[in-house]
Each structure stands twice: as structure tokens, then as C-alpha cells.
Amino acid sequence: MIGAVAPASGVVATLRQGCARFVRGLRRRVAPGSAERAVSDTPMRHLLAGPPLAVAERRARDLLLRMLSGKQRREFELCGYFSVEAPGRGRFWILPWRSLNVVEPVTGDCYCGMPEGRLPVYDLMLAQKLLLENDPQHFFSVANRHPNFALHPRNTRPAVSTR
Amino acid sequence: MKTLRVLDSSGDRIVEFDDTAASTECREQAKALFERLLAGGSTAFKVNRGNGIADEKVTNFAALENETIVVPRVVGG
């Protein structure tokens, strides 16, 4: 690809570490019994509007796991994110957070396109997977693109407290 | 039995129907919901099709298979 810049390995490592922290938090929230825990004091409370959210996240995670291919499921369970092939556009990572979570690994470009409404994160990832794999023109026609966003260290995901 | 899953804040909402005469009312309700959602900008995909058949975007209620996921209207963030 002309003009493509491979992300610096350090930036990719930072992205992956941030991703892993986020996923650890999500896994705690969807663990059995988590629905009964108060969420008002969690550092992710802005993502947890509504008491039944842990139940919704668990339900969404189960659905996502069922819809992933074997390779994507292994990748997701190991790393917390997965790759998709968008016909005519190449490979993208779908990361487990709400904004700028579709990353083109070759360029570091990030895309932000999400369904309306407050869906669980795993539903958001599933929606993006279905769109990228089956209707990429639609996704890219509405998604906002941030060139080289992932290559700037200040834009990588900050640490999430894992109390 | 066919399943329509509409992604929402609870995870997903399920509507089930089939092609039998006994399910006519459910089918009509599902069709009305499907068409209303797509008219509002949602996108539907046939999934879980078996035998390694890839997922596929669908716009016609008559073409729905065993499982369909409806994604709400997508906007730029």
C-alpha cells in the first residue's frame, strides 16, 4: 500500500495493554453475581447507566461469542478484540470500547461508527463486525475517520482502575 | 421457528415466528416490526446459517432464514 505507515510496535503494545485492562474490567462486570453489585462507584460508571447493565453485557457477550468465527473467538478470548476482513477494504481490529474502536492496523486510522442507543459494548462490537463484513460501504459512509489516530501515544486508551 | 434479534440496551430483544398458519399473527407482527425498523435506518443480517455459509445483509422479510440480527441505525461517533 502506497504511503501506508506501520504502527510503531510500542504504540501497538500500549493499545493492547489498554485493551486488556478494559477487557478485565468488562469480564468482572459480566461475571456471575456481578449484576447484583452496585455499579455507582465503578470507574466505568459512565458506561454503566442502568442497573441491569451487567446482565445486558453478559447477554451481549454470549451472542457475540456465538456469532464470531472460530479464529475470531480465539482472538477475542485471548486478546479482548478480534479482526474482521472488510471486502475491498482490508483487515480491521474491533476493540472493546465505544468510540474510535475500529482500527486499521496498517495505517493506524481509527473509525467511529456506532448504532444509535445505549447498547452493551459487546453488541456494539457485533454490530460493527456484521457491518464491516457484509455492508462495509454503509459503515464507511457514516463512520468518522481519524487518520493515524492510534499512532499518537496521547490517543491510546488510558489506564482503567481495576479495583 | 425463525428468530429476529433486535439489538438494544438489554442486549437484544427476540421476536419468534414461523411459517405455519397458527403463527400468522406473530408473523405479521414480526413483519411489521422488521419493516418499521428498516424504514428507520436499521440494518438486518442473516446469521448462523449453517454449513459455513456467510452472514448476509437482508432487506426482504420473505427472505429471512432461521436467525436474523437487526442493528439499529448507525451514526458517526
Notes on the protein architecture:
The complex is a heterodimer of chains A (163) and B (77). By secondary structure, chain A is α+β, with helices and mostly antiparallel strands. Helices cover 42% and strands 13% of the residues of chain A. In chain A, a hairpin with a 6-residue loop joins strand 3 (102-103) and strand 4 (110-115). The longest helix of chain A has 22 residues, at 9-30. The termini of chain A are far apart. In chain A, 36% of the residues are buried. Chain B is 21% helix and 39% strand. Chain B has 77 residues and is α+β, with helices and mostly antiparallel strands. Chain B has one domain (2-71): Ubiquitin-like (UB roll). Chain B is globular and about 45 Å long. The mean pLDDT of chain B is 94. The A-B interface holds A 50, 52, 55-60, 63, 66-67, 98-100, 112-120, 123, 126-127, 130-131, 133-135, 138-139, 142-144 and B 5, 7-12, 43, 45, 47-48, 54-57, 69, 71-77.
